[in-house]
Structures are given as structure tokens and as C-alpha cells.
Amino acid sequence: MPRKSAKSTPVSGPRSSSKRAAPDKATPTRQSKRTKATPAKSPYFKPDSDEEVDGHAPEVAESEDYENESDQNASESDDEVDDSSDEDEAPRARSRGRTAAKGSALPLRKKGGGAGEAEPWRHGAKLAPGTQVVIKKPKPRGAGNVLYEDHTIHPNTMLFLADLATNNDRQWLKMHDPDYRISLQDFTTFLEKLSEKIVEVDETIPELPVKDITHFSAAWSRTGRKGPYAAYYFQAQPGGSFVGGGLWQPEAQALGKLRRDIDRKPHKIKRVLNDAGVRKSFFEGIGNDEKKAVTAFTKQSSNQSTALKKHPKGYDNGHKDIELLRLRNFTLGTKLRDEEVVGPKGLERIAGLLACLVPFITYLNGVVMPDEESSGSSEDEEEATDEGLEPDNEAEGDA
């Protein structure tokens, strides 16, 4: 005969969606342990519903400005697991809790606004099966106490560029698209104001719409950003914004014209390089000395790095202006600190440097792309030289 139990064990009925409280003497079931093992009180994991599917509660991870309750949740989770009497389920519950907390890769913001965020766009995050990651639409960085104005570069634009240099990744850029768009708009409106300043000092530059902005930089010439003409250039870069201009790696024909002009009339380029504005802005304020100005020009990094090591074809290595003849770039430029670019004084500072480049840009364009009214006399000089004759206006020392 079957032996009767001394105690009557209550028979558990079917699960109810309302999760009624169990009798006081009921033995803890597997359902209650799994519920406790899941950090349900954590703001990073929220069940879709009150019901479980096959004994597993679905987990939803959300990326918002959460308070860091990891310490509190960890203690609560440990207490609940330790109170469990089922030795088989406890290790599984602990492992499940750690996997969910560690593998979520969601941003954690400490109380008080501390740093140290996990990044959900990074690859390699390990999530528990069934976990749903909900990434909230990113919001742009707050403007703070500084207004966005058309004639200034906002500090947030420089902060975005600094972050971009550190996180040069497509996924990161997607997550920070609002910051990118606001920064781009901020830089575009600034360039519109800067373009007006350039047109004022150089009437050969047409009023063209600002476009083709690449890496937060812009160039102005008679034909816009591209073309054979010498150009003005500005680039915003945290820790080293750049203002400059000239001809960068001109074509062989244009380079040949520049070398021919230096060979025949070197006083023209030397006079431009010795200009007071050029010396002050690009040669660290050296004195009025053509030789020092030429040396400073050839030592500019963009010029020196591409210069020929030997003399160019058709010119002797002992030429008195061999330093200039070896060049393959003809550029001037200087770096700016962030405080010189950002804020209300940035526009005037940058525009002032570009204005100092006008004599240099005008000289280069006059040689490689002469105006129609002066092209006839230039061609006559070339023909006379080819025939072995010296033009009447050439000085003996310049031949």
C-alpha cells in the first residue's frame, strides 16, 4: 500500500497571469528564483510584460540618462540569491545576473554627472539571449551660456571636432549625428561671414555660395575651391587651426612659369615675401630683410617637405636663388590656438590673416594665370628671351 505522508503538501495549481501571492508555507519555486536572479529593479533591464515565457523573463535594455544604481542592485541581487535554498539553481541565477549586467554595454552615468560611459555602438557586446537593446535617439550637446551666432565659431564645434579626432568611426558618428549637424551649420554660417571679409580685401574672389566643406575647411579662389588659381585657405581643428594660402603642388606648366619668373625677376617675389604683413603674420615678426624673408618662406613646412634636393632641370645648382627654384609648393600659413578661433574675436583674427595674404596670392596668380590685359606683354618677353634677346625693362643683375 502506498505510504501516506505525515504532512500534506499543497498542490500548486496552474500559473496565473496575476502572480498571486503564494501561501505562507509554500516552498520557494524555480519561478521565484529566476525572477529574483534577474535584476528587475535595475533601470537597465525592464520586462516587456508580467508573464514569463518558458521560465525566462524577457529583458529590455534602454539607453537613457540613468542614475548609476549598480551598487544597490548588486547588493539586492546578492541578498536574493543567497536566500535561495535551491543549490542547483543558485549558480545559474548568479551567472545569469552577471552576464546581463556586464554584457549590456549601455551608458552608465554616475550620480553627480560623473564620466565613464559604456558605449553601445562598440562591437563585441555580449547580451543574454532574448535581450532587446533600445537605443534612444541621441540629443545634441547643450549650448550652455554661449549663444550660436553667425559670425562666431561655437565652443561646441571645436569639442565635436576633438571628439571626432579621437573616435574616427562611422558608428560613433551615427550616434553623434545631431552634434555633427549643428557643428556643420555653425561652421557654414561662420564661413559665409568670412567669405564677405575676403571679397572685401580681394575683389578678384567672386561671391560664391559656401559648399563642398570637407573636414571643416574651406578654400577661396577666382574659381572657387578648385581650379588653377592660387587660393586662400582656412581649417578649424582643435589645438591647431590653420590659416594660409598659395599654390599647392601646381601643375608642371604653372611651376615652370614660377621658376622662370624667379630666374628672371626675383625681386618680385622677394618684395612680396618681405611685406610687413607677411613677416608679422607668417614669419614670426622677423625684421625688414629680404634674405631672411626668403629663408623663412622656404622653411615653411609645406614648402620644405616637398622641395627638390637638387637643382631643377635647366637651372644650375649654384644659382643665387636656388632655394626658391627648388620649391614645388608656394604656400604661406600659420596655426592658431583655439582661443584665437572660438568666440567673437575669431572672425576678425582669421580675416586679418587672410588679408595679409593678398599681395602673395596676387603675385602668384599674376605669374601662372595672368590677366588678359597683361598677357600680351608677358608673351613678348618670353619670345624675346627665346631668341637670345633681353627685354628693355630687365635689369642687368636680374638676368
UniProtKB/TrEMBL annotation:
Query: InterPro entries from the xrefs?
Result: CHP02453 (IPR012808)
Q: Where is this region: Disordered?
A: 1-129, 369-399
Point to the regions of Polar residues compositional bias: 7-16
A Pfam entry, by short name: DUF2461
Entry superkingdom: Eukaryota
What residue spans carry the Acidic residues bias annotation?
A: 61-89, 370-399
Quote the protein name from its UniProt record. Uncharacterized protein
